[in-house]
Amino acid sequence: MDDRTFRDAMGKFATGVTVITTVLGDEVHGMTANAFMSVSLNPKLITVSIDEKAHMLKKLVQSGKFAVSILSEDQIEMSMHFAGQKEKQDVEFDWISGVPVIKNALANIICDVYDTHKAGDHTLFIGEVMDLNISQGNPLTFYSGKYGRNLLNQGQAV
């Protein structure tokens, strides 16, 4: 099968949208990602998958810590910014345990890098959850290459 067919098939799995952030010195780095999942309750572990060509890969290795901010349905612009789909804008971050997080996200999960595994053209970063923050709201979703809002209520992506 070709790459496009594989991507199209993977796009049939509706996901939430996250922004992965870290800090090196005084500089905050972030990227949009939907390849995120919980792994273990004891210890509390999550995983994010980062493309080998992404600038974020080296940043996570260097910093040894990161945050996953699960975006709300009102944060499409934030997702697009960190996906490089919008012109650069100033982003004001909240900080939890010394790590920048996206304000007003549904959840901010702060992690130390627990382990990494190279898998094909990506590296899986397993993070040990050190702190978190939870808010209320509806999730920003992604399905078949499109952003959506609350797919259950609308029946389709918008």
UniProtKB/TrEMBL annotation:
The keyword Nucleotide-binding does not apply. SMART domains: Flavin_Reduct. Keywords: Oxidoreductase. InterPro entries: Flavin_Rdtase-like_dom, NADH-dep_flavin_reductase, Split_barrel_FMN-bd. SUPFAM superfamilies: FMN-binding split barrel. Residues 10-149 form the Flavin reductase like domain. This is Flavin reductase (DIM6/NTAB) family NADH-FMN oxidoreductase RutF. It comes from Scopulibacillus daqui.
